[in-house]
Amino acid sequence: MDDPKHDPGLNEVPRWLAVARIEMGVAQYPPGQSNPRITEYHAHTNIRGYDDKASWCSSFVNWCMAQVQIAGTASALARSWLEWGEPLAQPVAGCVAVLYRDEPDSWKGHVGFFLHADEQSVYLLGGNQLGCVCENAYPRDSVLGYRWPAPARAPAFVANLATTTPFVEIREATADDAEAIAKVHVLSWQAAYDGIMPAQFLKELSVAARAQMWRRSLEARRMRVLLACVDDAVAGWVAFGACRDADKDKQWAEVEALYVLPSMWGEGVGKRLSDAAQHLLHDAGYRCIALWVLAENRRAIEFYRRCGFLEDDSSGSRKTIRMGGAELTEVRYVRGLID
Fold it and tell me: What's the pTM?
């Protein structure tokens, strides 16, 4: 480590990074609407009052710094951070990373908080990344500089959130994962749909039967499935692919299902799965995502809203299904995938 005075150590993270993590999932709204939270970010720059369609990566970093009483650049330009604080010879977790966009000599750029790096990429937590606050990878050679608050600033560190937040590994599912997927499927249904679906129906759900179904589906590769693993055990999964709705064109993808073990609810596992799926769908060329959720499943609806989804107000966005002998209403939620 070339900058030991900036090393957070194993048990601490920068205070502004802790703030940024809490904001994960804040996202741009579809055309014609604007997320007021992003307008709050803009209030700390020279584009106060702008909506969420204005570039907001620098606004987000300014806002995060303001929450811990550290002055930012007050500018909406990402490259303004190249003149802020002091430079670092090597990046450390939470430092401000400034990147160029299009050309090194262009005025365009991106700014976010450095997390880690490999040979090809730097991984940042920031705003306006795929249209939301999330973790994302960028080419390592696009970095213009790393910055840290000047030494006179307020104390920089808080207890490491990793001590309470589990490490989540995201990987592709195979047919060998069918039983683990089925276990999550059954346990999450029994917890999430208690009081929504008939109790006897939920009680009789079979892991073995679901495992057979999932094995066939994974072998047929009808959809793509990502797993979230904690300590090498499957804690959740997301299934996604091309949208199956007749009223959506080829630009639309669909999250067919996302489930997490009840014991892991509130630990950020579902958010990691949602972010990973959105990233892959964006890279595959999709521009919008749809999903269906039970109208009575308020917990799931609030989760999807935090992930940037809004209720679809177009025709055909509600349907009735039968499950376990009960008649239930499903509602479609949608969001855009922003470059």
Answer: 0.57
